[in-house]
Protein 1
Amino acid sequence: MQINFISLASGSSGNCFYIGTDNCRILIDAGIAVRTIKKRLHNAGLDLSKVCAVFITHDHIDHIKSAGVLSEKLFLPVFTTAKTHNAMDSSYIFKQKIYSGKRIIEKNLPVAFDDFTIEAFGISHDGCDSVGYTVHFGDKRFTLITDLGYICETAKEHIINANYLVIEANYDEQMLDSGKYPLSLKQRIQSDTGHLSNRQTAKFLSDNINEKLSHIWLCHLSRENNLPQLAYKTVNEKLKEKGINVNLYVLPRTAPSDVFVLEN
Ligand SMILES: [Zn+2]
Ligand SMILES: [Zn+2]
């Protein structure tokens, strides 16, 4: 069984990730236009019509923008927690609502989905009920956590057990401090329900991960307060200090990543 992972977009302009086998293809988040999802999948040799479900991390628009269209026009089931569905239902900026495709996933209750078992778990962010996802296949685990202010115990457990990890490195602390964002926004980003800095992610990973983790993709980089080279360097240096050998990548904000083949 071959498993492919592609980031179609990652950051505050929109998030969408693809993970799939020949039988089972899913999207995590749908924060970019459907035509862009379609085109980027097509360019990778994949067909949106073969995608069988969408999983949503939280109700911020950069994660949900197209979820309604995928549900109602393309008839894809959209899985997320009941609270996030309610928040999407009542959001005035989320125009196309989800009706027929509404599916509830309970946190910490893995659901079997063809070749995958998918588990949602709670994380700390200012979405109404933010989750990360662990996708189990064979004896391997792929964990995706974007948008979080700090790493709570549950998130920690998922990260340290992952073989493949997508994790946020949102901002460089100095760039945010000296940047032009208003103080209230800086405080929101730095808070426990905001975003992870490069340093926080670097420190957590270098202190906690073990040899079963083979790939790390840094995601949701800020356009204003980060640079891909800086995120990479901050995390890479910390990992190297501890002698940790892992494949480290930075996901592009507005372009698709390479296609990664995951071993199971
Ligand atoms: Zn976001
Ligand atoms: Zn968010």
Note: The pocket of zinc ion (ligand 1) is lined by residues 12, 15, 60, 62-63, 147, 220 (CB under 6 Å).
Protein 2
Amino acid sequence: MARRIRVAAGSIRDPSDDILTFAAQLGCSGIILNTPDLSGRTPFGSSPIGSTYWTKPGDDDAPTHWDYLELLQLRTRIESYGLRLEGIENTPLYFYQRCILGLPGRDREIENYQETIRNLGRAGIPILGYHWMANSVWRTSKSEPARGGARTSVYDHELGRNAPLSFDREYSEAELWENYEYFIRAVLPTAQEAGVTLALHPDDPPVDSLGGVARIFRNLKGFQRAMETIAPAPNHKLDFCMGTWAEMGVDEMFAGLRYFGARGRIAYVHFRNVRGAVPCITETFIDEGDVDVVEVMKLLVEMGFDGFIIDDHVPEMPGDTLWSHRGRAYATGYIKGLLRAVESMTA
Ligand SMILES: [Mn+2]
């Protein structure tokens, strides 16, 4: 069987010489950037992963779209290391936060988002990952003791449910769906014209509501509604986050993987593991946790998945860097070994 699945590096906000060199040394075929800072602003603080920080609508100094030349320079920089720029996941949240909440000004945000999509297409960057979390990813602990003295992240809804409202009021599930439909139907045709695939990440954690804002991408049914009823298109796919899907329950994860994998609707995979499901989940090393990762890789290969895989959140190992070079070297090596073994067994 021809090898079609690529292993890339991810969670990269700043494509520094150090990170790109490291990714090349690990044998990654490319990278995906996450919320790159193209304008000197830092909406997510030092790390976009697991952050609970987000900006509120109304910050008018903020840039509102990404420019063509910036994107092109990003791509040529990454290619100069022998790596492919697979895509970018997550614009800053404030690029489209009024859209999620259905606030005045959303049409202007949509125009800007469309411009970002066109510029991605012009710059030859084929994927834009996005999500529909108005208040980002939540964790109630980032210091849970893990294997051998590592630390990891936990979301426990018993603690998270005490959060104050994130915005001025509660936002219902019906509103979030209505706003989603308005947004995706406006931007998806632009993406199609531009040759860009939009890839949807699940709500992490996948609970009903957080800080008063409903979460709609928390089960298979929600994804089916988005991908088949509201916005079915060949360039509308999933950023299949194994970790977040497993937070819904391992059975739901496999159901989603089989359903969308068989239909060629998975653009790329966040390959990570967790223990437990909502209301309480703990992130784990890739080789522990509830998900049988061998089974996942076998399914991907059998279904003819031809996208790429990245590691995702990794436990914090003492002495590691902010980007987690140690943790990522372990996860990426594990993923590459697993892929090689499964490919050779199914050849
Ligand atoms: Mn993820």
Note: Residues 6-345 form a domain with the TIM Barrel fold (CATH 3.20.20.150).
Protein 3
Amino acid sequence: MKLHDVTLSGNCHKVRLFLSLIGQPVELVPVNLLAGEHKQPAFRAINPRGQVPALEDGEFRLGDGQAILVYLARRYAEASWYPQDAETQGRIAGWLSFAANEAQHGPATLRLGRLFGRPIDEELAQARALSALRTLERHLTQHAWLAETVQPTIADIAVYPNVALAGDAGLELGAYPALQAWFARIRALPGYLGMPGL
Ligand SMILES: N[C@@H](CCC(=O)N[C@@H](CS)C(=O)NCC(=O)O)C(=O)O
């Protein structure tokens, strides 16, 4: 299995972290975003969206961190990572959407601007980031894991990196105790894998 990867990407890290947690070996293939490698036909044949992360598992190819987590969980992981009951799957879908929307357009975008100098609407990204952090804090005050399960699911892994990396974006995460406790629970999982900034 190959993961087309960028070391400092939170979206790639959610896949690296999950593979590590489930003990699944992977070959990391670095993609040079600065050189525009992800927009070349060879890469678009793997992920037509021209973005990392992108997975190759034999002949099967898949882009998008959330989609990859669903695939890996169904194919390789214990059922508790992606339980089959309708309620939990509905909740997980909601949090995967949060990862791709609120977490991406808030903390991840702010980090892109502040750490990598990409042009962003700083005020908008900051407001979205704070709103995402407050939503998570309220939820995690009531629940240990995002999908309201007794064990972690792919919802936690999808949301965690871009939120925990918000310190890189200059956000003060110490003001969110329930969020900090959730970070600690994730970091205590067997097979946990960090990255620069985490
Ligand atoms: N929805 C995608 C977003 C992936 C994404 O934004 N990837 C970034 C790196 S973190 C990327 O490839 N950016 C280059 C581009 O979009 O051109 C996911 O969650 O995987």
Note: The helical segments are 10-21, 41-44, 65-76, 86-100, 102-116, 122-142, 154-164, 177-187.
